Amino acid sequence: MEGFRTCWNYKSRVHPDVPCTRETLLGDFCSYHIKTPHRFSIMKRFKRLSKGKRDCLRRFVQRCRVRIGLLSVQRQGLKCPTTNMTELISMDPIDTIYPPYRFSFCEKGLFWTFDVRALLASRSTSRDALTNPYTQIVLSEDCLAKLQNHVQWLNSRRYRLDYAVTDSNRRPTYSQRVTELCLLMDSHGYWTNVDWFNSMTPSMIHDFTNRLDSLWIEELGLTDEQREAIYPSWDPEDTYLVPPINGLRRAMARAMVRFVPIGPLLEQLLTFLFVFLRASPEKESRSLACVYILKALAAVNVRVINSYPWL
């Protein structure tokens, strides 16, 4: 994912025929246009349609709206009266949540609605599991899976997942992918902490990949059939699991001299981990992939051992 969404407004009154190129602040508009949004559009001449074609087009649009609504409910939950009347962080009414960020779920017969960014903000704490902030009940695996799918949907459309108000406090875009990865592992029952990945250095990435390769190739004693069940694209002739990360050796060589941006290295690692965790069609095999990642993390981060002593 490169950057965030660009503003849907036109550039200015002087240039109404040019789209704005600023990054969005909330949803679809930048900080300059968010108070008075006017979507950019291009005027085109259309041939006049007959009444029959207009009716056909109207029915098609109506069916599309119904279909989009059903997909939204499946991804974000029902939009119905909820137990909490205000948003968790801003304390604004629930109705003011920007539609793409709305997320609701049912817990013991009660509906709760959140701005998905508020849930992710609570996920960024040192807490072991993602819980309902009001009841402190751990979210179910089905709810976590739905949340992870919605976060993936937002990421694919380059929505911001934080409450940044200026460019100076904007988090790196890879932090959103780290959150998505942790939610994916959480959905398999292994609670993780985003800091385990965000705090990585080039040397930690190097040690992590070496440890994961060693577990996969030798230490676990896996057969080729077992490896292919977990990672169907595995080639038995390969001598490593994690593909080489471009720039890692160069970063290791100059890490003692000056600051090395971790973003590009971590982005490559995250890309592979997503592929690895989603490769198998069997949930049991995907859970094993989570365990192997945690075992490799335990070799580079003592906090993982504290959370999972059995590793």
What would a concise description of this structure say?
This protein has 311 residues and is mainly α. It folds into 3 domains: 1-44, no CATH class; 76-171, no CATH class; 199-307. Helices cover 44% and strands 4% of the residues.
Care to describe what's here?
With 311 residues, the protein is mainly alpha-helical. The chain has helices at 51-76, 116-123, 141-156, 174-186, 195-198, 202-219, 224-230, 248-254, 263-278, 283-298, 302-307, and strands at residues 102-107, 110-115. It has 3 domains: 1-44, no CATH class; 76-171, no CATH class; 199-307. It is built from 11 helices and 2 strands; from the N terminus they run αββαααααααααα. A hairpin with a 2-residue loop joins strand 1 and strand 2 (110-115).
Strand content: under 5%
Give me the strand/helix succession: HEEHHHHHHHHHH
Identify the overall geometry.
globular
Helix content: 40-55%
Question: Which helices and strands occur, and which strands form pairs?
Answer:
Blueprint: H1 51-76, E1 102-107, E2 110-115, H2 116-123, H3 141-156, H4 174-186, H5 195-198, H6 202-219, H7 224-230, H8 248-254, H9 263-278, H10 283-298, H11 302-307
Antiparallel strand pairs: 1-2
Helix pairs in contact: 3-4, 4-9, 6-8, 6-10, 9-10
